[in-house]
Amino acid sequence: MFEYDFMLNAFAASGMVAVVAGIVGFFLVLRQQSFAGHALSHVGFTGATGAALLGIAPLWGLLGFTLAAGMAMGALGEKLSGRDVAIGMILSLSLGFGLLFLHFFTAYATQVSALLFGNVLSVSSLMLKVLAVLSLICLATLAFIMRPLIFATLQPELAQAKGISLQLVSVLFLTLVALAVVACTQIVGVLLVFTLMVGPAATAQNLTTRLGAGIAAAVFFALTQAWAGIALAYYTDWPTSFWITALSALLYGFSLACKGRS
């Protein structure tokens, strides 16, 4: 399995993305913003297909739209609370526009299909470098905002009283989530981002309430399902994204069973 370059690229790419998804996803679940990750991936699909219509590589459209949407969602903050129907309609409209753009321009159909469902086995050396840069930016930014992010997440009123801008933290964090969504899309696609960002984090938080142990567990579960998914896909010739989602559901079910016994 490791004698092929495409398999080495797949393991390296999924490893980098899993670490970022595990850490960012942990805070996403802790801040009860899981829906934001799902929303950003849908908006990103519109950006990717819109870019293809204009003759630009879908990745840049995906990156631009998710970053803009992430910053806008962070700036709106609490104003989005309780508006699930309106948000759902906007997401459906985004997906509809994405399909319309795809209808008018099909030259990038293969790439767009990979954006929808992911294709980690086709990660090129150039994409590997892009993912490495995205991962470094995500981890460096997360390290920079880690203390105010934890404070604002666990004790928002006290953090605000201490002079921490909750809106600024929210904007920076959701910008970070947007970058993580772009990275995850290369592995599992926009429709399955939830499984790599939220699944491992939710599993970890079912098993432990300690912050450090929870982050480590989320990274471990994300790496396990990504790498095991690739290995199972290699030996069964079934889609990698299927195995990753199946393992994510299996681990989450296991965590629920453990939580029920405790």
Quick structural overview:
With 262 residues, the chain is mostly helical. Helices cover 82% and strands 0% of the residues. It contains 12 helices and no strands.
Radius of gyration: 18 Å
Overall geometry comes to globular
Structural class: mainly alpha
The tally of helices reads: 12
What is the H-and-E element order? Answer: HHHHHHHHHHHH
Share of residues in strands: under 5%
Query: What's the N-to-C terminus distance?
Result: 40 Å
Kindly report the average pLDDT value: 83
Oligomeric state as shown: single chain
**What is the strand tally?**
0
Helix content: over 70%
Give the biggest beta sheet: none
Q: Give start-end ranges of low-pLDDT stretches.
A: none
Task: Record keyword descriptors for this entry.
262 residues, mainly alpha, 12 helices, globular
What does this structure look like?
- 82% of the residues lie in helices and 0% in strands.
- With 262 residues, it is an all-alpha fold.
- The mean pLDDT is 83.
Mind sketching the topology for me?
Elements: H1 5-30, H2 34-53, H3 58-76, H4 84-104, H5 109-117, H6 125-154, H7 156-161, H8 166-188, H9 193-197, H10 199-207, H11 211-236, H12 240-261
Helix pairs in contact: 1-6, 1-8, 1-10, 1-11, 2-3, 2-4, 2-8, 3-8, 5-8, 6-8, 10-11, 10-12, 11-12
